[in-house]
Amino acid sequence: MAPVEQDALAVREQLFHERVRECIICALLFASLYILCHFIITHFKKHTDFTGVHDDEDAAVNRIALGLCTFTLAVALGAVLLLPFSIISNEVLLSFPQNYYIQWLNGSLIHGLWNLVFLFSNMSLVFLMPFAYFFTESEGFAGSKKGIMARVYETSVVLLLLTLLVLGMVWVASAIVGNDAASRQSLYDLWEYYLPYLYSCISLFGVLLLLLCTPFGLSIMFTVTGKLLVKPRLLEDLDEQLSCTRFEEAAVSHRI
């Protein structure tokens, strides 16, 4: 084998090992987030929502919906933590550039995490969350055999009809606003245009909701903290306490 072919084979093997390592790291990170989100949801949900159902079919449906909601929450938490993780990993690599044990925090891993978060976010928004909602509300088509698959068929049909309805409304709105070839061609570019636009709009609404709710939450937090904490004696005014004591003594003497 020629030296050039050996070098190319070595480079391919190195790239393959790096891809496998990145996949393992991404899987471990997502598994950790999924377990954390599962504990969070099971802590805050009602006990009778998923475990107290007497029907085995309803219990299985609720468990599937719980898994989908946990997956979506894990993706959302990963999207929130991805930017701090990118900044911290960059600072660690700049601080220890020669350390072998932290070289896995490279740009390829961060880029892969961003792509996975974007993919799973759109999948959760477009498919998983509507599917979980319609799946818990479904009962199967009339006359069909009862079971999990009947609910899956009904949920799939309802979700398909909803997708067609939304696409039809978008098509009509696009035809009303701009009835040209460019606007009609942009409707076919779903992955490159509409999904990033949908992701950006939902992120914008989330940021606005956070800005709206954060001041009230902080004010309530400081109010509750002020009620729970005891005022230290070093900050008390002794002259004011003495004058209040004298007034109370004079009032008691006047009553006597």
Automatic annotation (TrEMBL):
Cellular compartment(s): Cell membrane; Endoplasmic reticulum membrane
Domain of life, source organism: Eukaryota
Bilayer-crossing regions: 24-44, 64-88, 108-136, 157-177, 197-224
Keywords: Cell membrane, Endocytosis, Endoplasmic reticulum, Membrane, Receptor, Transmembrane, Transmembrane helix, Wnt signaling pathway
Topology of the protein relative to the lipid bilayer: Multi-pass membrane protein
GO MF, one annotated term: transmembrane signaling receptor activity
Gene Ontology process terms (BP): receptor-mediated endocytosis; Wnt signaling pathway
Keyword Signal: no
Signal peptide, first to last residue: none
Chief location: membrane
Presence of the UniProt keyword Endoplasmic reticulum in the record: yes
Entry-linked InterPro entries: LIMR (IPR008075), LMBR1-like_membr_prot (IPR006876)
Any single Gene Ontology cellular-component annotation: endoplasmic reticulum membrane
Family assignment from sequence similarity: Belongs to the LIMR family.
PANTHER family: LIPOCALIN-1 INTERACTING MEMBRANE RECEPTOR LIMR, PROTEIN LMBR1L
Protein's name according to its UniProt entry: LMBRL protein
Native species: Tychaedon coryphoeus (Karoo scrub-robin)
